[in-house]
Amino acid sequence: MKPVRFYFALFCGKLTILLLKMLKKRATNFPGSVVLTLCPDFLKYLEKPEKIIAVTGTNGKTTCSNMLLDILTDNGYDCTNNNFGGNVDTGISAALLKDSTLTGRATKKYCVLEIDERSAVRVYPYVQPDILIVTNLTRDSYKRNAHVEYIFNILNDNIPDKTHLILNADDLISSSLKKNNSRTYFGMEPFSGEQLIGNNIVRDITACPVCSSPLEYSFLRYNHVGRAKCSKCDFCSPEPDFDTTERVFTPDGRADIKVLHEGKTEEYNVPCENTINLYNATAVTAALRTFGLTEEQLAASFRKINVVRSRYDVTEEKGRTLKCIMAKGQNPVACSHSLNIARNTPDTAVILLWDDYYDRKETSENTAWYYDVDFEFLVNDNIKQIIVAGKTGRRPAFKTSCCRCS
Predict the structure, then answer these.
(1) pTM for the whole structure
(2) Number of H helices, E strands in the chain
(3) Which residues lie across from 113 on neighbouring strands?
């Protein structure tokens, strides 16, 4: 029997959503904050949709979630979702609350959720995904996520045993999660002409987790993401079940890819402009094929969708091309990706580095992450000028880190 406090929280949460709509305010995390304040175990009693697909991981959660939602919607699935941006317990509560009745019954059969890694302990006991994509686990903000092993242990201790995992075969850390869970691996082969970086400052796994011997990489795409084996024991990268073997970028910001699955090649036209998003598209392919979509359904939907340009945009201004690349604040791996895109764009001439543009209200005095960013990538013939701006641009640590490339 559900407690009275649950129904009281449910009523107050619904009232909050109504008031926010009347005030023409976006109903983001706030209704979830209301219900969890009044009933901390609210998610335990709220009925969940029958089928839940979720995404977690350091980078790529939002892109994967949007792709999943767009493709499922295109195929007639009406899904509860939290694509308004609330990926912690309050945001997930708000999303499920919105699509529930006044008695707490779910009004939709399907659900796509983006779930923050740190929220695992508060979400997974009550919301248990049927399919969970783990995009990758790499070094993130020290302030938010401490170290990658800390996040690995949180996920490993809280992901439900029944959840089928979609794991990155090219990431030796996340691919080792929940050994006894059923799983499907996705990965990407080295592409013809691809520059396999392998020279990032940060590599979060260098020794075999079984015998501590050095790892030997057959290729290293970025940071520790690639294929490796132990120099002494049998530990090695798993073989991908969905393996992207070819990709051709097209001028319209998309890519034609070939994915090898069970000995057969599947072909998709996906909305991807770079390698990171190709990993996201391959992960979504593995998840939705596991969910039950056919190759034909997936291919038709991929051709229709586009990636929201909130983190990468291109505009023309007085005959000059301006490209805006956003990266998670205090995340050295994401920032290094952005710098790598800049150095590999032949017509890049001037770089404007603007730290803490969106995070300035909750900035951190911890400057250690600057030293993990690959500012050396900016040492390239095409880059003529680097401008440092923003509140933290005046910090000696930021300027010193940038000066490593001068």
Answers:
(1) 0.90
(2) 12, 15
(3) 54
